[in-house]
Amino acid sequence: MKSGTIKTFLEVHTWTGLAAGLLLFVAFYTGSMTVFMHELELWDSYTEGVKAEQTLGQAQRLIDLALMEDPDAASSFRLYPSSSDHPGHSVYWFKRLEDGTFETNQYRLSDSGSLSTAEDTAHLASFIYRLHYTAGLPSPFGLYLLGFVCLIYGVALVSGLIVFLPNWLRDLFIVRGTGNNKRFWLDAHNVVGVISLPWHFMFAWSSAVLALGIVFLAPFQFLVFEEDLIEIFGDELGVISSPEASGSMQAALSVKEIVSIAENEAPGIKLNQLRFTNYQDANGTVSVFGHLEVGTLTPNANVTMNVSTGQVLNVSHPAQATLGATFYNGLIALHYVSFGGFTAKWIYFFLGLAGAFLFFSGNLLWIETRRKRRQFEQPAATQFLAKLTVGTCIGCMAGVSASFLASRGFAEFPDRADWTEIAYYAVFLVSIVWAFSKPVAVGARDLLYTCALFTILIPVFDFVLVSNSIWINAFTGHWPLLIVDFLALIGGLLFFKMGRSVEARANSGESNSVWSKDIYVKRNEGETVKI
Predict the structure, then answer these.
(1) Residue 128 has pLDDT above 90, yes or no
(2) Predicted local distance difference test score (pLDDT) of residue 261
(3) Which of the four pLDDT bands, split at 50, 70 and 90, describes residue 471?
(4) S-S: 116 plus which of 47, 110, 295, 461, CB 3.0-4.6 Å?
(5) Confidence class of residue 121 from pLDDT cuts 50, 70 and 90?
(6) Least confident segment among 210-214, 229-233, 380-384
(7) Distance between CA atoms of residues 517 and 416, nearest Å
(8) Region 279-301: what's the mean pLDDT?
(9) Are 10 and 454 within 8 A, CB to CB?
(10) Distance (Å, rounded) from C-alpha 11 to C-alpha 156?
(11) Distance from C-alpha of 141 to C-alpha of 158, rounded to nearest angstrom
C-alpha cells in the first residue's frame, strides 16, 4: 500500500478518533459497569436483610389492590415477579401526562399484605445505564448524538485497521515501555485495539442500530410500507399489536393460571415480567416475558395470550425463531451480554475498560505526537486537549464513584435519586474546571487522588451505613453483593497508583512536555521563562 494512502487513512483515523473519543470514553467506562446491572441493582437496594420471596397468589393480590387504587392502570401495566434476588413483586404503570411525558406509578405489597405506593428510591443502576447510552447529555439528544458518534467510531476502526495492516505481524504483541512515550502509547493503543477489534466492530454496529434504529426505519414506515411496521415484522420479533378494547368486561385469569399456560407453551421459562393490556376486557392481552436455559446466544422467550380466555396468540421461542429474528436477537444479546453467565460478564467488563483505555490512549498519542521537544512551552492546542481529556475522563470516573457514595449516603431520603445525579454532575463539572485551572500534570494528579478517595470510600460507606452488613450476607448465599465493594477496593488502589505515577512523571520527567508540573511562557522579547 502506498505511503500516501496510509497517511490519508491515518489522518482519517486520527480525526474521527478525536471527534468520538471523549464521548465514547464515558459510554465505555459506564458500560463496563452496566455489565453487572443486576448486581448494581442488588447493591443499591440493599439496606436490610433479605426478605422471603413472595408467591404468585400475592402477585394477584397486588394487581387487585393496585387496580382498586388506580382503575386507569388497567389499560396497560407491568408486573415484575418476585425472585430470590428481588423477593417482592412490583407493578408499574406509566401514566401519560398532558405535556407528553410519563409519570411512573409503582406499587408493592407490604409485609402485612397491604398496598404500598412508596417509590423505590434506588436509582444508581438506571442512572449509570443512562450515562452509558447518552454520555450524560440530555435524552433523547444524547442518545441520537451517541448513535452518530458510533458511526464515526466505525470509520475510526476501519481506518485504524488499514493503518496497522502493513506491520501486523511485526507489531501485534509488542509494547515498548522505555525511552519513548509516544512509542509506548502507540504500541499499547494498537495491541488493545487489534486484540479486541471484533468486539469493537460489534459494538459500533449494535450501538448505532439501537440508538438510530428508529431514524433508519422512519423512511420505510412513511414512504415504503402502508401498514405499521410492527404489523409486518412484529411476529418475527415476538411482538404483536394488542387489539382494541372491546368495552365488554370479562374476568381475567389469575397470575398463577397465566404463568401455567406460559410454562406449558415454553417449558422451563424463567419469568422476567408480565405486560398486561386492557385488563379484564374481552380483548385484553398479557405477554409473559422470560428466558430459557438453552445454552444459545438467544435465550429469550415470550408467550402472548388473551388475558380472559387464555387463548395463545403468539409464542416466541429460540427453537422456532426465523433467521431474521435470530440475527437481530443475537445482536442484542451480544450487546447486552445476556448469555454466558458470569464468565461472559467478566470478559465484557474488562473489554469495556480496555475500550475506555483505547480512546484515552488515542488522545494521549495525539498529544505526544505534537510535543515540541526543542522548547519548553507546548502548543496551546496540545495543552487544551490534554486538559479536556484529563477533566472529562478522570472527571467521569470520579463522578461515577461520587454517585455511588451519594446513593448509599442518601438511602433514607426521598430525593435520593436526585442526589445521585447531582453528585455525578457536580464532580464531573468541577473536575473539568479544575483541570483547566491547573497545569495538566497537577490537575491529573489531583483528580486521580480524588477519584481514588471516592472509590475507596464505597466499601467504607457500606460498612458504616448498612446496619445488616453486606459482607455478612454475602457469605450466606448473596455473594454477588460483594462485586461492587471488591471492584471499588481494587479500583481505588489503581487510581492511587496512577496518581503517584503522574506525580513522579511531573517531578522527574522532561520539562518539555505537558506532563511537567512547571509552566513556561514566552515574554515579549521571545524569552521563555518558568512561572
Answers:
(1) yes
(2) 94
(3) low
(4) 110
(5) confident
(6) 229-233
(7) 39
(8) 85
(9) no
(10) 10
(11) 26
Helix (H, G, I), strand (E, B) or coil at 173: coil
The domain spans of the chain are 1-51+124-224+340-369, 225-336, 372-531
Q: What is the DSSP letter of 166?
A: G
**In a 3-state reduction of DSSP, which class is residue 136?**
coil
Quick check: helix, strand or coil at residue 64? Answer: helix
Q: Collapsing DSSP states into helix, strand and coil, what is residue 206?
A: helix
pLDDT in tens, 50-103: 466 788 899 999 999 999 988 888 888 999 998 776 778 888 888 877 776 777
CA angle 517, 521, 526 (to 5 degrees): 145
The 10 Å CB-count burial string (b at 16+, else e) for 446-468 is: bbbbbbbbbbbbbbebbeeebee
Give the C-alpha distances (Å, rounded to integers) separating 503 from 64, 443, 467, 506, 530: 62, 10, 39, 5, 19
Measured distance CA(424)–CA(370) in Å, rounded:
33
At residue 234, the pLDDT reads 60
Q: Are 399 and 425 in contact (CB under 8 A)?
A: yes
DSSP class of residue 235? H
126 phi, psi to nearest 5 deg: -70, -35
Q: What is the pLDDT of residue 27?
A: 94
Q: How far is CA 296 from CA 36, 142, 170, 300, 316, in A?
A: 20, 33, 37, 10, 15
**pTM reported for the whole predicted model:** 0.83
- Report the distance separating Cα 19 and Cα 149, nearest Å: 8
**Mind giving me the DSSP string for 311-339?**
-EEEEE-GGG--HHHHHHHHHHHHHHT-S
Four-point Cα dihedral 388, 389, 391, 392, nearest 10? 100
Coil, helix or strand at residue 509: coil
